Amino acid sequence: MAAMHDGLGVARARVHLGRMSKTDRALEALLSRASCDDLVDPAPDGAMLETILSAGLRAPDHGKLRPWRYVVIEGEHRAAFADLVLKGMRARDPDVPQKKLEKRRKRFGETPMTIALGMHLRPDNKIPLAEQEAAVSAGVMNVLNALHLAGFGGLWVTGDVADDPGVCEALGFAPPHRLAGFLFVGTPEETPRSKRADIEDYMAVWKGKPVRFGADKD
Ligand SMILES: Cc1cc2nc3c(=O)[nH]c(=O)nc-3n(C[C@H](O)[C@H](O)[C@H](O)COP(=O)(O)O)c2cc1C
Question: Which domain holds residue 7?
Fold first, then answer.
């Protein structure tokens, strides 16, 4: 781990020298990923979309249950899906503010692409449900990284919409299958940046005694 931390510094130095190796470039790309909410056209399509979603299917998957299911919502179908989202919001709260409704309509109706993150779960399987869900989450992370590497952007959201039975059923996920949320997808309007924590606070080398992390200081 220490070597990787050092390696990033080396990679940064090499950018200036214009001598980045393939590995340095790959690590730089991975470490520069950030979620993005301000997404415009284009979203990936065709073979590129399939490649990006294939990255999701490279996630670790205990028992080879392949629980990942991706539903792409785009083009004219976005408006109908936004209608469903708003219908659920009104059902949950008849007094939901108009402003909140309009915000959701804009997000689901105007973002270039939404990918519903389905989880095809098998409650009776010997692989615990938490591990089946972890495989889906690992897949989502791969998709987010693939989007970034291909020059696109994404944001993973959950919230009450992801648990809405009407929305889940309309997408094809009746219980026990569920949604792990939605990915909003498109091209970032500006290069997204997120504040990142320092790895030194989140790693430790075990030397026979319980470890303490800088991140957990009170
Ligand atoms: C399972 C999961 C659910 C999330 N749900 C939401 C959400 O509903 N709304 C939201 O604004 N961010 C949500 N986030 C956080 C964003 O996806 C994102 O990680 C966050 O904005 C930080 O940006 P970063 O990915 O660049 O660090 C969720 C993240 C995860 C892992």
Answer: 1-32
